[in-house]
Design a protein that fits this description.
With 326 residues, the chain is an alpha/beta fold. Helix content is 23%, strand content 23%.
Length: 326
């Protein structure tokens, strides 16, 4: 529990790879910081599918030039968890886990008050590095609340021998479809567009295309899910509406940042539907003085724009600006 008189140089909200990178840079600059993470360490990565393979090679996931040694050219989820955990513990980063931040407010003397579920903190600067994985993009269709419906996918065994509809055509949807098929599940993909997504990992794309072409995985293109019922689903296809027997539905329709949290802080968003937060790309400071953004949250709904390998630099940019203005 923080003491009321203590004032941190920086509070970092989010204990993912970019939040950890910010902590490492703060230590280099001898800044007094604290990382607040609402879940476990690298919470979003922990909730990725068990068998997930990163698109990036291990060296592009490294922080602070600390080597990431992987058994594979592209590391697995378990290897990434081990890497970021070792960095955190070996550097004794100051981080509070399972402590969700509720508000960030301006106080007198230009201080920022950060209120969490467990206490209140004062800081000269705040960095928001909360990612985007916590809020699914809902379809808002009848039956989406049924227990057979999942917005997150973990392991294929649960769906073995069952009829599973996978909605989406991105990496998460394709990985789930292929894994469940190979564990004996009967998979049908519902895809809004005329083909599998163009950003699907290049070494996976031929696999899913071949499985669909041979009929091992069924796919309805230019289609959408209309309703989810207890034992079936209703879809709209170019040939008209149809229903099919169904046990589970995986809605792999993507995720979005917590825009309300940013707006409550006072951060302005673009009004073009992309909801890109307002920040200085040279310093990462938002329109709210002394509040910074780092990582994927900078992209608004374009969650594919920023990822670990191209947003690691945000930590150094922010710390250089904080130390320069002070």
């Amino acid at each position: 529990m923080p003491t009321p008189e203590k004032i941190y140089d920086i509070i970092i909200i989010g204990g993912g790879p970019i939040g950890i990178a910010c902590g490492l840079e703060a230590e280099k600059k001898n800044l007094d910081y604290l990382i607040l993470e609402k879940g476990c360490l690298v919470n979003s990565l922990y909730h990725y599918p068990t068998n997930m393979t990163f698109f990036s090679t291990s060296e592009k996931l490294e922080l602070d030039n600390i080597p990431f040694i992987s058994n594979n050219p592209k590391p697995k989820k378990a290897e990434a968890l081990e890497y970021y955990r070792r960095i955190t513990t070996s550097n004794q980063l100051d981080i509070n886990l399972f402590e969700k931040v509720n508000t960030v407010e301006k106080k007198e003397n230009k201080l920022l008050q950060v209120t969490s579920e467990k206490g209140t903190y004062l800081a000269h600067n705040v960095i928001v590095a909360t990612g985007f994985y916590d809020i699914p993009n809902y379809l808002n269709i009848p039956g989406e609340e049924l227990p057979k419906v999942y917005h997150y996918y973990n392991d294929p065994h649960y769906f073995a021998t069952r009829k599973t509809v996978v909605v989406g055509a991105s990496n998460s949807a394709v990985d789930a479809a292929l894994e469940i098929f190979r564990k004996g599940g009967e998979v049908t993909m519902i895809v809004r567009k005329p083909e599998i997504g163009r950003r699907v990992k290049y070494w996976v794309r031929p696999d899913i295309d071949n499985r669909i072409n041979e009929g091992s995985i069924k796919a309805h293109f230019n289609a959408r899910l209309l309703e989810i019922r207890k034992d079936e689903v209703v879809i709209e296809t170019p040939q008209g509406k149809q229903s099919m027997e169904n046990d589970f539905v995986l809605l792999m329709t993507g995720y979005r940042p917590n825009f309300k949290f940013l707006e409550d802080i006072g951060i302005k968003m673009s009004d073009d539907g992309r909801k890109i937060p307002q920040y200085n790309p040279q310093t990462m400071e938002t329109n709210v003085n002394n509040v910074y953004l780092a990582g994927v949250i900078c992209g608004g709904v374009d969650t594919h724009k920023w990822f670990i390998e191209n947003s690691r630099i945000h930590a150094k940019m922010i710390m250089e600006h904080i130390t320069t203005k002070n």
